Each structure stands twice: as structure tokens, then as C-alpha cells.
Amino acid sequence: MHPWTLLLALLPALVVAQDDGTINGPTSSASAAGYSCDPNTCKLPTCNCASTSPPGGLSPSEVPQFIVFTADDAVQSYTLDAVNQFLAQRKNPNGCQPKMTYFTSLNYTNYTLVTDWYVAGNEIADHTMTHVGSPPADEINGNLIALNALAGIPMEAIKGFRAPYLNYTPETLQLLKQAEFTYDSSSSASIPVTDPGTDAYWPYTLDNGMANDCLAVEGLCKGQPKLPGFWEIPMYAYFDDRGVNGPHLMDPWLDTANGASTVNDTATLVYMKNTFTAHYTGNRQPIGLYTHPIHVSKTYPGVVVSQSTIDMINAFLDWAQEQQNVWIVSNEQLLAWVQNPVPVSQLGNLDALKCLTPQVEATLQICNGIPQNEAGLLSHCDFPDFPFYTCYGCPSVEPTPENPNPPQQVPTGQNARYRLPANCSTPFWDPIAGDCICTSSTCAFTDDSRPIGVSRTGLTRVAFGTHPDFVVDMYSRMVPI
Ligand SMILES: [Zn+2]
């Protein structure tokens, strides 16, 4: 295909993304919420009341400040390049590279990159197959089926959902619960944490209905919908000088600040820092960078990206990471901590925050989501709309919501590829031989995280260490002097 044909085919996705996720003012209020929840009966890990206080009765000083990093829409090399320019060079306090959540829609997605991104430790979540708001069941469930069949993502690993355009209904949440999703993250926290009526709740279960978006989505709140054990992770807005009247939710760097007529990265950075500080010095509700990476990709043909905007986002993260107990995480990592809210001194014990690297010989030729192993083994599925690569064999037709897992089209002289079974994890599955190369019941992963905890409290990143009462050793441990 001529490159320009491909570019034109991709443009609709770009246009779509620009309207995705804007709010203009409060989306909830206490009276619209009509929310009540009894913390004596609603208890972790399966139930959590919507609350502005940290889970588990912890005081804010014992609580990490989480920055959730998410990306939405198709997965392509240029969108992963965009994410990597913010995360690849960073470390969390335990020495691990931060992980993020990719809400994946499948039109224009290159399936093998989804496999690679997952095997590298990131969370793959559902954003419908063809990017439709208020989606029917086959758009939600087809995404699960196609990601499992063609990207080798275990069904149980796909825990989360975000509605395209953040356009969801009570029925959407019901469908997610029926399909055994763990959480939705489509709602907005639209009132600053410093306002008495803030709706910046920690993630909560819908045992007593929703408490966010009560003014924005019909049929929500006042106890509805009741979905016991199903979580809502609100998306926390930033606020400019106009406070509650100046919210910025997704891609704040594309917005103008303080009612100005043009984008001003300096002004954006100021209000992002101010909002972060309000969370950090308050109840430490999470904050998020909710991105459409295509807008900040330098490798997407034909799109001009401002280097100053990219630098501003990195400056924000640099500044945030200079403060203690700040973690950049995926939604599943955040939720793992909320369900088991250990104080910061015990974070080293939380498996979800560790970095676990699959132990696979570098020379082994196996189509497993590790680039050095799978080189030369990918199938190229040359569909005119959006060609893609996969380890799991090309389907005979493009996957659709009606037919998310079409029969394989097996090239002459080759055998069909074997899809991921339930009892083998992705980096150890050989789809060509149909063999699990991990022979133990718990597959071989190396823990690359640095021990943290009681004996090493105060760990933070290497660049930290300006406080005059401390020196920082080579492992970035803060030592009182
Ligand atoms: Zn989207």
C-alpha cells in the first residue's frame, strides 16, 4: 500500500481522539449523588465506600502519591514512541521503570505491539473494538476476544475498561460487570480536592452505586447502579486559575489555560503543579496523566508536535518525582494497593509494584512478545484498512464485533499457530510449536525491584537529595547526617 493511503486511513482516528474526554465544569454534586455507604459493612478488599480519605484508615503521610499514566486508542509504534518519551527514562522508588495502562481499541492497532507492551509489564485494557461510545456488548466483549486470540493477552489480565469519548451509561457498567471486568475508568472527578464538595474520591466499588458524574450521565447515582465488588477509578481533573470552572481532564496540554485563546505550556505546567500539590498536601487522592499519545508523537507522519509541550510534560514528571513517595503506576497497580493499602514503609511487599522480568534465553527463537526472541517469526496480516503483525496467525478476515476471532488463514506449507492457553503465560508460550517452555507451575520471572520497606524507608529517585539534612547514597537511600 502507498504510505499516503495508510496515512489517510489513519486520519479518522486522529480526528476522533481530539474530542475525547473534555469536561467544562462540575459533573457531580452532593445532592445529585445522594450517596450513602456504611464503612462498617463495606470493607476491603472486596468493598470500598466512595471517600476522599485514603483507604484502610491510613493517614495521608503513610500513603503514596500515585500518578496514574494511561493512553487511549490504537496501539502503533508511533503511539508507543510517544509514551516512551515520558516513561522509558524514569524509575519508581523501587528502581523499576513505571508501568502504565493502555486502553486499546483495535481499528488501526498492530497486535504484536500489544503483545510486546504487555510482556514488558504494562496493563492492556479495553476501549471497544471500533471506538464507539455507549457501546453494545459485542464491542466490549469482542475486544477481549480479539486481544486474547491475536495478541495473546490472557483473558484474566484484561481487567479494565474506558468508554470512548468517556461516553458511558449505567448499562455499560452492567455489561462490564457481566463480562467480569474488575473496573471501569470513564468517570470524572471534576471538583478540586480543596473544595468542600469535591468529588475526588479514591477508587471505590459500586456496592452502593456511583458517586461521580451524577449530573452528567442519566440514571447514575442515588444508589445506582448497584454492582457489588465492581470498581470505579475516577479520572482526576487538573484545575487552572479558574478553579472548579477551569477543569482539564485528558491531554491538558492541548487545552488553553485560564481562558486564554492560545495554548501556553508555561501556564499549563503551573496549574498542573498546583493541582498535584493540592493532592499531595491533602488526602493524596491519585492524580493522572490521561493521554492520547498520538497528539504528542514525533514519529506519526504529517503531525507537527510541539517539542516545548513534550518538554513541559517531562518537566512536570521530573518535578513530581523529586518529591517523596511519588509513584507512576498503571490502574491495576493503583487498584492492587487500594485493595491492600499497606503504608509506604511496606510497599516493597506489594507484588503489584515489583518489576518481574520473564527469564527467556536471548537466543531462543520463540514468538513471545520479546522483540529479540520473536524477530522473523511474526505473521504479516495484510488487510487494506490496517495491516498488522501477530504471533498468533492471521485471521482470514479482519476481526469485527460480530466476528472478533475469525478462523486462521494458514499460509501454504505452514501450520496453524496455537493460541495462548489458559495455563501458560505469554512470554513462555510458543505459538508455533504449541508448547509452554516454562516447566514449573509458577513460571520463571526475575524480580528486578530494589528492596524497600522498613529498613530502607525514604527511598526515592536518584535525582532527589537536595534536603540539607540528608545525603543520598548510590542507591538513592536517604541517610540522615
Ligand atoms: Zn478513545
Can you lay out the helices and strands and say which pair or pack?
Elements lengths: L2 H16 L11 H4 L31 E9 L3 H11 L13 E4 L6 H9 L3 E4 L10 H15 L8 E2 L8 H9 L4 E2 L3 E2 L14 E3 L20 E6 L2 E2 L1 E2 L7 E2 L16 H16 L6 E5 L15 H15 L4 E4 L1 H9 L16 E3 L12 H4 L4 E3 L6 E3 L38 E2 L4 E2 L8 E3 L22 E3 L5 E3 L1
Parallel strand pairs: 1-2, 1-12, 1-13, 2-3, 4-5, 5-8, 6-9
Antiparallel strand pairs: 7-8, 10-11, 14-19, 15-16, 17-18, 20-21
Protein name: Chitin deacetylase
InterPro entries: CE4 (IPR052740), Glyco_hydro/deAcase_b/a-brl (IPR011330)
Keywords: Signal
What does the model show?
This protein has 481 residues and is an alpha/beta fold. It has 2 domains: 3-354, Glycoside hydrolase/deacetylase (TIM Barrel); 456-481, no CATH class. The chain has 10 helices and 21 strands. It has helices at 3-18, 30-33, 77-87, 111-119, 137-151, 170-178, 265-280, 307-321, 331-339, 371-374; strands at 65-73, 101-104, 123-126, 160-161, 183-184, 188-189, 204-206, 227-232, 235-236, 238-239, 247-248, 287-291, 326-329, 356-358, 379-381, 388-390, 429-430, 435-436, 445-447, 470-472, 478-480. The strands form 8 sheets. Strands 1, 2, 3, 12 and 13 form a 5-stranded parallel sheet that branches. α7 packs parallel to α8 (307-321). The longest helix is centred in the first third of the chain and has 16 residues, at 3-18. Zinc ion (ZN) binds next to β1. The site of zinc ion has 7 residues, from β1.
